[in-house]
Amino acid sequence: MKIVISACLLGVRCRYDGGDSRNDTAIKQKETDELIPVCPEEAGGLSTPRPPAEIVGGDGDDVLNGKAKVMTADGTDVTEAYLKGAQHALQVAQSHGATQVILKARSPSCGCGDIYDGTFSGTLTTGDGVTTALLKRHGITVTSL
Known about the structure:
InterPro entries: 2-thiour_desulf. With 145 residues, this protein is of the alpha/beta class. The chain has one domain (2-144). It is built from five helices and eight strands. It has helices at 24-29, 40-43, 60-64, 79-96, 130-137, and strands at 2-6, 34-38, 53-56, 69-72, 100-103, 114-116, 124-126, 141-144. A four-stranded parallel sheet has the order 2-1-5-8, covered by helices on one side. It has a two-stranded antiparallel ribbon with strand order 3-4. The protein has a two-stranded antiparallel sheet with strand order 6-7. β6 and β7 form a beta hairpin. α4 packs across α5 (130-137).
């Protein structure tokens, strides 16, 4: 099976802080499935490392609807980069015929079910990241690690 996966889960150093989120479960999945790594934030044009960002005013669906923004801790609006990266991830999934995607938990782009609340206080709230919301709108199953 072809599965699109957050590159950071496979050990790629593309997290906002220049690190990775290597996950042994994800690494082991390479034995049975074809994993296609993607980093929506880098694909959207953001550098690594980069300032931390959170969705302010809602979740990924709200960003897609123009009702919320993705902002860095220093107040820079990076919404367009997140939208561009989400579109890239969707195109990758569709071009490979992937109907399942595994993304990094709690991320403003990849979070699935829980994301940080936009206050930069470490508080979680219910919601999806921008990429997750877009993929779900297109019928792709998203889980997080």
